[in-house]
Amino acid sequence: QVQLEESGGGLVQAGRSLRLSCTASGTIANINAMGWYRQAPEKQRELVASITNGGGSTNYADSVKGRFTISRDITKNTVYLQMNSLKPEDTAVYYCNFRIVSRTYRESTYWGQGTQVTVSS
Length: 121
Known about the structure:
0% helix, single chain, seven-stranded mixed β-sheet
C-alpha cells in the first residue's frame, strides 16, 4: 500500500509565497509522474502542475505559469510546489498526485489528503 502525506498549506496575504510538499511512502517500485491539483469551492478539480520523475519534464496551468514551480526529490519520493506571487484566486484545496508502479508492474494513481491554501486580498 502507498500513502501520500502533504504539508505546507495555510493562510497568506496576496503577493506572498507558500511551499507545498508531498511525500510518498509504502511499497513503491517506481514513480512515473507527480503532480499538484487544486479544487476551489463549487469548481472542478484542475491540474496545477505536473512533473515526470525520469526526465523532470514539467507542465503548468496557464494561470500559474511564471509564479509556481514544481520540483521533486527522487531520493525522498517527494514533490514540491513553490507558489510565489499568490493571488486570491489561488485559494483552493491543493492535492498531490502520484502515478506509481508496483512490484508487479501495475501503475496506480494515488492522491494526498489535500491541504488548504487561502490567499487574502
